[in-house]
Amino acid sequence: MAREVSDQSGRQKIRRLIHLLSHKDGPLRNWRFFPTRFLLRKLRSESAEMRAYAAEGLGGVGDSHAVPPLIEALADDNTTVRRFAISSLGHLRDERAVDRLIPFLQDEEPDMRCTAVVALGELGLSEERSANPPVQVIEALINSVTDTDRSVCSAAVVALGRIGNPQAISALNALAETTESEWIRRYISEALHQIEEQTLNE
Question: Domain 9-92 sits in which CATH superfamily?
Answer without folding.
Answer: Leucine-rich Repeat Variant (1.25.10.10)
